[in-house]
Specification:
It is built from 20 helices and 16 strands. The protein is α/β, with parallel strands linked by helices. The protein folds into two domains: 302 residues, Vaccinia Virus protein VP39 (Rossmann fold, 3-Layer(aba) Sandwich); 200 residues, Alpha-Beta Complex (DNA Methylase, Chain A, domain 2), CATH 3.90.120. The strands form five sheets. Strands 1, 2, 3, 4, 5, 8, 9 and 11 form an eight-stranded mixed beta sheet that branches. The chain has a two-stranded antiparallel sheet with strand order 6-7.
Amino acid sequence: MKNRQSIPVIDLFAGPGGLGEGFSALKDSENGYPFKIALSIEKDPVAHKTLELRSFFRQFRYKNKNIPEDYYNYLQGKIVRDKLFEKNAHEALLARKEVKLATLGDKNDDKKIDGWITNVIGSGTHTANSWVLIGGPPCQAYSLAGRSRNKGKEDYKPEDDDRHYLYKEYLRIIAEYWPAVFVMENVKGLLSARVKKDRIFDCILNDLENPSTVIGSASKIKNKYRLFSLVRPVKNGDKDCTPQDFIVKTEDYGIPQARHRIIIIGIREDIASVLPVLTKKNGRTRAWDVLSDLPELRSGISNRYNKDNNWLDTIKKIKKEDWYKNLSNREVKERINMAILNVNNSLSKGGNFISTEALNNKSKFKKWYLDNNIKGVINHQARTHMPSDIQRYLFCSCYSEIMNKSPLLKDFPSELLPSHKNVKMALKSNMFTDRFRVQRKNAPATTITSHISKDGHYFIHPVPEQCRSLTVREAARLQTFPDNYLFEGNRTEQYKQVGNAVPPLLAMQIAKVVCKIFQQANNTE
């Protein structure tokens, strides 16, 4: 396994590329890149466009070349994508070779996928398989929210839901090509998901340890894998772990977000390795540490309500509302009054690109996020909201600032509650009462999920005067994507990509652990 060249990485179910970004950005002590993304596969056409653009960007980084001005012109909307790729044809060709649009599990696509993998890692010899597999099979069927939705469907049967078995597409690649190490990520809800009476997580662990017994592999190599937790150092891997040991809490590792995900490290049994454990960080990164330098924006009124451009009037009318008049918490009421006086109608609502002076991020990740060549901010456009939601957001952010917590439904003035039936049910059952959630300044954000593509209720900006939910760029900052990482597609598609991603800065820490595994293996040969 001695290899001075970058170790190939194949990224399955790649999404917009969070895991791949972390692995590809890692540098060693000699300022080289230990890992290189050899192949990324994603089935969503818009996420594929995002991946391809980032791969294009990486081609310059791998060669320690300056990112061309054309790239920044594209971010600023000055040139179209085809022109960017035409003017940098070699890098565009490499990006297209690396990033593929395909669906794992589709028979026609699987044949192409096998060909692509063989092309980038070789075949036939054991040492040819010194590469890393990363990725997370789609998780909608495992997530608690997804299972809650499915519960209400009379004809829904988990055993008939193909999404429960997408991990076997990941498993097939392991069984056929035997990566030295794999990293598999998924939602925490996987731990409690069941098909009939069988816990899916137990089945997955067993299958990942013994891939050739599950998949009819043509490979003559029949190795097994040892599975490890990233948070608990145990010599016997999953044999000494509880299922909870596989949960990585990102806020413990410097990420400005409390995102809890299952991450499994698999190491081929013939490879000697160090115990793959992440190092916890001292202190936690607050949401405001990474958001405070972004340009202030204001929300707008949804088109169906916006006959007279009445955003400011909507806020000023709050003082005439019964909920405001009857508000018993004096401090919250005073803060709302202050916000009404201070709102600035001249603030921008943002856009796909907004020009601004150089940002001054004060977080420890300043160098990671900032790129002054952008000369502004991308993917930073405020949503429009219905007038009643703007009032709710203003109340929530003021309440959060004063009470140091986001309000539950029971904390709302009754007149301000939505008139939905499920709100009344939530109040009676005391479940799902955090339907409006402020991302507090002085704590890590709550989990950025794909639900942010549907509405902003769970992702309210902490500054009351802005009266809005988070932008795509703010969500991306909390997910630790660099500012020069453009998300393609319309805004809804951008939100979805960000919400589904693995935080790149966490991925880079995982990459450091994987790099040590390869170093140890090299030293023992």
